[in-house]
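Onboarding guide, step 5: your first structure request.
Type a short instruction followed by the sequence, for example:

Predict the 3D structure of this protein.
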Amino acid sequence: MRAINTYFEAIPNNAKEQKRFDRDQAKFDKLVAKGKTPDYKVIPAKIIDLDIARHNIVEIIDKLVSVYEHAVENAKTIDFDAATVAMIDFFKEKAQAVAYRVTHIVAKNKALKLMEEVGIPEPRKRYRQYPFQFSGGMRQRIVIAIALAANPDILICDEPTTALDVTIQAQILELINKIKKERNLSIIFITHDLGVVANMADRIAVMYAGKIVETGTAEDIFYSPAHPYTWALLSSMPDLDTNEKLEAIPGTPPNMIYPPKGDAFAARNKYAMKIDFEEQPPMFKISDTHSAATWLLHPSAPKVEMPKIVSDRIERMKALAQKSKAEQQ
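The system replies with structure tokens like these:
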């Protein structure tokens, strides 16, 4: 415990050094704002680095674990439950004063680092600018940086490419993929763009009226769709080889303030049966990775083939995928 006390209470707090840093940084930023490129770097103040703090705390915990393991092997009269609780309480008390101590300089440095990570050019210059001075793509990058600030395990992207032109869309998607790999993130990608889904997703959940109606791998959904709504989506999606007329989904979505009694898609589903208007279908398992909520999968349901426009599109997608794979090899 003495070692931990020493660590936490020995965190430097040099006010003079901090003033020096603030003064030098202000001069540096003024030069940058004027369009000049300073030929020097500002030496940071000696303040706590949160990453180093976490690393040191983990090392201390590892050492304590070793001590406890040794004690367990050599003693039988110690109440280790009580001792462990006391140690955890002690850590919480000591760490709380540090964990939330984020100075302006620490926050700024992290912001600059995140801006650089998401591809914002000249982050020190951009740091002082307002949103209206950024392009749409750059604003989207800033939003991604904000989302990454808390070091999340899961990143939720809700229509991240909306209102962006095709070139910028591709850049944002490439950035998200890059971040996913570098940070080992899981990403929940919410979009109505099936082309984006095909390029980004490992697993897909198709939703209608607030409910998941089909779920599976990307291959399951695009090559073996089973729900009429998924068929309708694929039927209305154009591609470069489309010759036939695209099919629009008839009708309008239901008012979920007054949800329908049966399947929410029944009124727009040309394959709907009587039971669709009376009872919501359960999720039927198609394979270990693929499920769909449609009465068409019930063993007693009549056999219905997917629309020809969908099956033709699937064949084209498979051929295109094979061609692309061959070219890469």
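Each response can be followed by summary notes, for example: The mean pLDDT is 83.
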